[in-house]
Specification:
- Residues 560-571, 656-672, 757-780 have a biased composition (Polar residues).
- Residues 513-534, 559-584, 610-788 are annotated as: Disordered.
- Residues 9-465 form the UDENN domain.
- It comes from Naumovozyma castellii.
- The chain is of the alpha/beta class and 788 residues long.
- Among the domains are: 8-173, Beta-Lactamase, CATH 3.30.450; 189-461, Rossmann fold.
- It has helices at 43-47, 133-149, 157-170, 189-196, 199-208, 220-232, 267-273, 296-300, 314-318, 320-323, 342-345, 350-365, 384-410, 423-428, 436-442, 446-454, 474-525, 544-552, 560-576, 585-596, 639-651, 659-671, 675-688, 694-705, 712-724, 730-742, 756-787; strands at residues 8-17, 21-28, 57-67, 91-104, 119-128, 212-216, 285-288, 306-311, 326-329, 334-337, 622-623, 633-634.
- It is elongated and about 130 Å long.
- It starts with 7 loop residues before the first strand and ends with a helix.
Length: 788
């Protein structure tokens, strides 16, 4: 009905009386049936706001309730929150703009008796059915200034001329949409973004949640302009505020129908199909851009559930904690969330922040101090229209994302229906880019229910569900980089594992070939020394790790402490692995033992002691080391044979076995009572010759130690074993003597001296063996370092 009525309702003059306060002095242009004496009792306080006397000229925007049928306003004591139920459909919201000025009373040519103060303050008010503030603001300012320049307030002809002129311009029977662009005039969005920056988007989202919001500021014009400017960012809302003046006015949802078509050439038709505008002032909501202290009862009423109001009165500001959920200080350009539960709900996502910051950056870069509404060089980017279109794109993407989110949830049980939706939309979950917490809260509001009722469920088929920010998400890029890094590490690890397996297999095969070659000679001349451990102990499934550590560790000749640390490390690691599960490599070593002619029943035998030969001419020289800790003592008839045997072992890449060290320790526990001498002998061995295979050296030391005449128990044990096992290994004894001579061991413990030349030759052979052993181990270490 309001679309068929004239836009301009009337004009009035408001005066500030020194005794009665603000009051309406003069009316013009109202319908004849209006009772001006009872019309809008709060209008004078809205037209002359608190603090207006501090400005030479100031403008105020405010709303008024008007009964179109009875041509009146609500009753004096009723207010906006107490309207008769049977007249709700007759009420609508009007919009008024006032321009107030003041003049020295001494300058007046005709001074009335009521003028008792040094200054006179008055305001000219224009009342309209649409918020056309920007269009009439300049004209109102000129007329008001001219009225004051007359120095005679008795002559009101200029006010009459203003009213007639405005009616002739705006009182054309036209649809609201035809003047929609005109409603944005004067609402400086650039100034709003320049002052509040990214908080602009936060405030917009807060308004959609239907909360109690108070705007406070001393500059009333800036205060009111901010509120209308923010509302204008919601597409098509500023031209649909007819129910915003009272919490009792609302749309009947039963009469609303969903739009099933639109005309692409008609912008209003497209906006209606999208469900815009979002009606944020429905039942229980009120909008009052300037609220004087006399109207505080309306915002405290039980009928008022949420509101957007502006004030310059400090008393309302002091009551912010009990009156509102969100307090916006225009002077300080700050937003204070009184209700702390709104903090996570109104938190902007990274996409929201980057989107609004990109717009703010354009405004800041093109800021023009001389003209706040126009960017430098009059470019489009950063202009008023540019900002408005950006927010329209934001709302379009938001509404479409909400629709697809609800549609997927609704059809979750039906697996066929979601298949018609592009997979990228389903996987991207665009609604999360707008803050899912905010969405869940918004879905409880009335404006969302209206939107959901009047829009199609598959709105996303025509309007893509996406966030307007198309830049690179740094967090997503970081996640992708981390995922790629872990994938590469996993791939390299698998490749390195395959390399280790191949090297281990080659080493095992080489060992098998070497053992097969030696077995014929060794079995004929060397006793088979296999000892079984106690049933509580188990074989070590994997000793490669400790030996890698041993060979990778930097060795300093003559450093006994470092050598002891390496050997203790190997022993400790073997001890901790006593109960570890069997390693697949165990099978390989068992096969190697079988190739040597040793049979382990049930593959669970262990090495506990070493059978030693008490023959003066035969002593073990080297131990053939395998995974099952079996020690095979090799010998040769002369020094040349010893050299040849050692070289063959070096070519076959012998695999060190830490279990030899364990067996030696067990032999010490069972066969030796003189532990102090054994320990001293082992330390001397380490100090003089840091060979790669410490456990082999330790075995040789133990063999030579057992020849001591002071150890009767050892001799007895050796004699028992010598009765049952052949001892024909002369050259082994000589190699032991060479080793003992190199280490400066007591000659009395050695059965026969060894020549210096043989000792030197044996040392060279051992050095060659160390080199052959260290080299492949270092290669494995490099591969492992690359994997890490």
């Amino acid at each position: 009905m309001s679309e068929l009525l004239p836009t301009i309702l009337g004009v009035c003059l408001v005066d500030f009386h020194h005794k009665r306060g603000p009051e309406v002095e003069y009316w013009y242009g109202l319908p004849d049936s209006c009772n001006t004496n009872e019309l809008w009792p709060n209008l004078p306080f809205q037209a002359l706001p608190d603090g207006s006397h501090s400005f030479e000229e100031t403008f105020t925007y405010f709303t008024l309730l008007y009964n179109e049928r009875r041509k009146c306003s609500p009753e004096n004591q009723g207010g906006a929150s107490n309207l008769p139920d049977d007249e709700l459909s007759d009420y609508t919201t009007l919009f008024a703009i006032s321009c107030s000025r003041q003049i020295d009373s001494d300058k007046l040519t005709h001074k009335s008796l009521d003028v008792t103060r040094s200054t006179v303050q008055k305001a000219v008010v224009v009342i309209a059915r649409k918020p056309i503030f920007g269009q009439i603001k300049d004209k109102l300012s000129i007329v008001t200034n001219a009225f004051f320049l007359q120095h005679d307030f008795g002559d009101k002809s200029i006010i009459i001329s203003l009213c007639e002129n405005l009616k002739s311009i705006y009182n054309q029977v036209e649809p609201i949409s035809s003047v929609d662009n005109g409603l944005y005039v004067g609402l400086c969005l650039r100034k709003i973004l320049y002052d509040f920056k990214k908080d602009v988007l936060l405030i917009i989202k807060a308004l959609l949640l239907e909360r109690r919001v108070i705007f406070y500021g001393s500059d009333v014009e800036l205060l009111c302009n901010l509120q209308f400017g923010l509302l204008s960012l919601i597409p098509n809302l500023i031209s649909n505020l007819q129910d915003s003046g009272s919490p009792l006015l609302y749309n009947d949802l039963s009469q609303l129908k969903a739009a099933d078509s639109f005309k692409s050439s008609d912008r209003q038709s497209v906006l209606r199909f999208l469900g815009l505008p979002l009606q944020i002032f429905e039942k229980g909501g009120m909008f009052s851009p300037y609220t004087p202290l006399q109207q505080v009862n309306d915002i405290k009423s039980e009928m008022t559930k949420f509101f957007i109001v502006g004030t310059s009165n400090s008393l309302l500001s002091e009551q912010r904690d009990e009156l509102c959920d969100i307090f916006i200080n225009v002077d300080e350009k700050s937003v204070d969330l009184i209700d702390k539960s709104l903090a996570p709900i109104l938190q902007l996502t990274s996409h929201d922040k980057k989107w609004i910051e990109s717009i703010v950056s354009l405004v800041t870069d093109t800021w023009n101090e001389n003209d706040e509404e126009t960017p430098k060089n009059s470019q489009y980017e950063g202009s008023e229209d540019f900002i408005r279109w950006q927010f329209e794109d934001y709302f379009t993407g938001l509404l479409s994302s909400v629709k697809i989110y609800d549609y997927i949830v609704k059809c979750k049980e039906n697996a066929i229906i979601p298949q018609s939706i592009p997979e990228e939309w389903v996987d991207s979950k665009p609604i999360h880019l707008f803050n899912i917490n905010w969405l869940q809260q918004w879905e409880t509001t009335q404006n969302f229910k209206i939107f959901n009722t009047i829009t199609d469920d598959r709105l996303f088929d025509l309007f893509p569900p996406k966030h307007p920010y198309n830049g690179v998400d740094t967090l997503k890029v970081l996640q992708q980089k981390l995922a790629a890094t872990f994938q590469n590490l996993k791939r390299n690890n698998s490749i390195a594992t395959e390399k280790d397996s191949v090297i281990l297999l080659k080493a095992t095969e080489s060992l098998d070939d070497s053992n097969t070659t030696h077995s014929e000679t060794s079995l004929a001349t060397t006793p088979s020394i296999v000892s079984t451990s106690s049933s509580k102990e188990r074989l070590q499934p994997n000793v490669w790790t400790s030996w890698k550590d041993y060979f990778n560790k930097k060795k300093i000749k003559g450093s006994a402490n470092e050598t002891e640390n390496v050997q203790s490390l190997s022993t400790e690691e073997l001890d901790t692995k006593e109960s570890s599960p069997e390693n697949p490599a165990k099978k390989v070593f068992e096969n190697a033992l079988l190739g040597l002619g040793f049979h382990l029943p049930n593959h669970r035998q262990e090495v506990t002691e070493i059978a030693e030969v008490k023959d003066n001419e035969s002593t073990p020289d080297t131990a053939e080391r395998d995974k099952e800790s079996v020690v095979l003592v090799e010998s040769a008839s002369n020094d040349d044979k010893v050299d040849e045997s050692i070289e063959q072992e070096s070519d076959a890449e012998p695999t060190p076995d830490n279990n030899v060290g364990e067996s030696v320790k067990q032999d010490n526990n069972t066969k030796s009572s003189n532990d102090d001498k054994v320990d001293e002998f082992i330390e001397q061995e380490r100090d003089t010759e840091p060979t790669p295979d410490n456990n082999v050296g330790e075995s040789i030391k133990q063999d030579s130690d057992t020849k001591s005449t002071n150890d009767e128990k050892v001799d007895e044990s050796i004699e028992q074993e010598s009765d049952t096992e052949p001892t024909h290994n002369d050259n082994v004894d000589e190699s032991i003597k060479q080793d003992s001579d190199t280490k400066s061991i007591n000659d009395e413990k050695v059965n026969k001296p060894i020549e210096q030349e043989s000792a030197t030759q044996f040392t060279e052979v051992i050095s060659e063996q160390s080199t052959s052993i260290v080299k492949p181990t270092q290669e494995l270490s490099l591969d492992d370092s690359e994997d890490l």
